[in-house]
Amino acid sequence: MPLVRISYRSDFVGRKDIAVLYPPKAPNALPFPGKRTETPAPPYPVLWLLHGGGDDFTAWPLNAMFLRRCERMGLMVVMPTIQDFQGWRNELGDFYRQIAEELPEFIGNLFPVSRKREDNFIAGLSYGGYLAYRIALDHPENYACVGSFSSPLDCEADLRERHAGQSGFPSADEIPGSPLDILHTAAVLKESGRPMPRLFQACGTEDFTWRYNLTAREHFRALGCDHTWFEAPGVHNFDFWNLALEQFLNYLPLGGKEASK
Amino acid sequence: MRMEVFVGGLSITLHVFLPEDWRKNPPGEGKTLWLLHDKFDDSGDWQSYTGAELYATLYDTALIAPSMNSARYNNWQNGAQWESYFLRDLWDYVHAMLPCLSTKREDNAVFGLGRGAYGALKFALLAPEHYGSVFGASYDDGFLKGNLEGTAHRFRGGSGYPSPEAFLQSPDNLRQYVETYVQSGGEKPFVWLAARTGDKTYSAGLTMKERLYALGYAPVWYEEDGAGSRPDHSSGGVFSDWAFGDRMLKKALIAWRS
Predict the structure, then answer these.
(1) Which of A26, A73, B113, B146 has the smallest set of CB atoms within 10 Å of its CB?
(2) pLDDT per residue over B199-236, tens digit each?
(3) What domains lie within chain B, and their CATH numbers?
(4) What is the pTM of this model?
(5) Could you say which residues from 87 to 106 on chain B have a Cβ atom under 8 Å away from some Cβ of chain A?
């Protein structure tokens, strides 16, 4: 499996960090040396795929069965380690800009990936999905689609009901109108008339973030966003996220063609 | 910056060390030094025992180190095709994934330690269109000595050559192949060899140097006193250690990049 693990020094957090990248099949990838395979030509479209709280860059590759499919789709997958989802570790570095600005710049400079908006997609599970929405809505010129799987997109309600007084989380009172309030950011973006990424939102019906997903869904619908909703029986785990990611991959506008095996 | 790549086909691990600056300002024609390890080693040893990550930035050069199994650097009769893999598949893969690297021969060199030095010289002669320079420390082709049939049998993954003559005529018999290559009029890469006088491999390096001289080559030769201290359990002796390998890597980079 051509998995690339990258250790790089981040200027925004002043330390080394790790991302893992799964490129499409290279000309020599399988099955034996010298046996060439039909592969999509670079530059490749990119899926920026974010893990959830308490995990790291290994979460997706170890738990989900999607890499072979992305390989066939000619889709480069980049899975960074997220140190901070809500800016609560700001004193240690600007983790948000590391993921939102530095990483795409660095990957785009070195690897054969497309920098076009229509070829860039971002998604994540749990708080990784929340961060994916924040990044896509802050940088709508960079992403065609954004996806969330079981993510507390109504961050204020989640913080108020589940994390009140908990160390490591911002206060819910600080959220409305702040950069962390992605519902507000979406409204401002919509109002501005700038191009908005297509929104994909998935949640299991037994997930503890279900209610925060419903309020966010109604908000996006009321704004008239290009919004797609996916629900299925499921809780906050990879059984559901595998399903949701598969739906998201189906939803991506890649021309509907997958390369031959 | 470091990348570990688990490449398909032979499922090898590849360590890639890139200059820090490249993530912001990738070069159009990045220079590459390919690193070949000694027997019993792998790609991770370049990270563990040398300053490869630092040298990449200091000398503005990508260092690319594949794990090459038992480091015989040849195509097995019935098994992995290490030679083809390095010369063709890995070359294509790396340049597809890192378009900032140059494919010009003057921008590509091979450095090898011990058995890797043998591999480096052999690969540079087999693909002179890829590699313009070869650097070898503690050059080791000791497996070419002794019983010919035994060597022919062992040398290709246990399956052996059809005959000792077939082995003798193959590029794996590098002492002979350099002559064949020079006589064919092939483009000569720059060759730089380093050895320690007390090393078990010293005489092998010296022999190759003298053979190259006799063929009209002018390899750069560097030697110093001392001997490796790493036990070689296969022979009961010692062989080159990484302290020497690290110093020679730095020396080679200075020589190549200055």
Answers:
(1) B146
(2) 888 999 999 999 999 998 889 999 999 887 777 666 66
(3) 2-257 (3.40.50.1820)
(4) 0.89
(5) 88-90, 92-93, 96-100
